[in-house]
Structures are given as structure tokens and as C-alpha cells.
Amino acid sequence: xxxxxxxxxxxxxxxxxxxxxxxxxxxxxxxxxxxxxxxxxxxxxxxxxxxxxxxxxxxxxxxxxxxxxxxxxxxxxxxxxxxxxxxxxxxxxxxxxxxxxxxxxxxxxxxxxxxxxxxxxxxxxxxxxxxxxxxxxxxxxxxxxxxxxxxxxxxxxxxxxxxxxxxxxxxxxxxxxxxxxxxxxxxxxxxxxxxxxxxxxxxxxxxxxxxxxxxxxxxxxxx
Length: 223
What we know:
Layout: H1 2-21, H2 25-43, H3 45-52, E1 55-59, E2 64-68, H4 69-95, H5 101-126, H6 143-153, H7 159-183, H8 190-209, H9 214-222
Antiparallel strand pairs: 1-2
Helix pairs in contact: 2-3, 2-6, 4-7, 5-7, 6-7
């Protein structure tokens, strides 16, 4: 009797399980959400912007994070995304396709070109206008869309292409962040920059010394 009762539930859940297990599912969801966002924002921009201002609260009474949905996506979920991508790049740098300078030089040079060429074209088109100040906008490659489109191809896309695009997009994003920090910010919080640099140096030294205590790395990573 229980087996019969569970069958309708299994028939309902099984397609979602199969979809989630496919490599292309992330890319498909990304494209669907993008299409919905484009249609929604063009039909009713006010309601579209309002939903991003919806506040989500996490924590206890004495320590509460009350931030907008826009914050949780940009500052929380994207941080996790780049952490996972960074781990994949580190694996490639240590024991993978980017372990040598010769192999790594191609995506690095491609990323530099991917920043300079769009910025140069933007300046050429907007030269002499007020809009020329936006030259840094087209510099960044959207890594989520790039990898999402590659995921749609599944096994038909060679691993070397995925590694190249991931490395290219990350180097490109790092360069774009530097441009934003140096040319588009009113002031740089040197205390936080120094703290971040000190933590990176500490993590590097711990690796060199052979420290393998995961909790030390977690604590420094959280900071």
C-alpha cells in the first residue's frame, strides 16, 4: 500500500531529480531566469526593482543581518560562486591544465585583450561625450553566463575549453575589479585592503609551512 501511495510522489519528483543531475541544468535555469527578468523589467520596471529591495533577515536578536535581496545575491551567493570557481582554478594551477606558465599564459593574455579591446572600442564610440567615463563597464566578462552556456553543451564541449574560459573570465573579472577600485571609487579603505593582504600572506605562509589544520583556514577565510 505504501509503495502505491509513494508512486505519484515519485512520478512528480523524478523529473526534477533528473534535471538537477544534468550538467546543463544550471545553464538552462540561468537562461530562463534571464529571459523572465528581461520581460518583467520591460513590462513593469517599478515592480521588478521593488522585489530586489525585499528584505531578508538572518540571525538572532542581538546579531541580526537585515539586508535586501539584492545584497544577498551580490554579496553572499556570488561570494560562494567565486569561491567554488576559485577552487577549480587553484586545482588547475596546481595539478591541472594551468600548472605551467606556458599553459596559463594564453588565458591571461586573452583576458588582458578582453579588457583592453572593449574599453578601447567604448572610448572610441563615446569620445568627447560625458558617457566616456563609463569605459570600465564593458571590461568584465560575465563568468556565470559564459560557463552556463558551456554547460548547455555538456560533454560536447572539451574540458580544455571550459578550463580556458574559466581562467579567462576570472582574470578578466579581477582586472575589472581593480579598475573599479582605482578609477571609480571615491576613496579606498586601506585598512581593509591591508587586512585582506595580511590574511592572504598568512594563508600562503601556512601552505608553505605545511599546516593542514582546516579550522585555521576556515577562521582566516571567514575574516
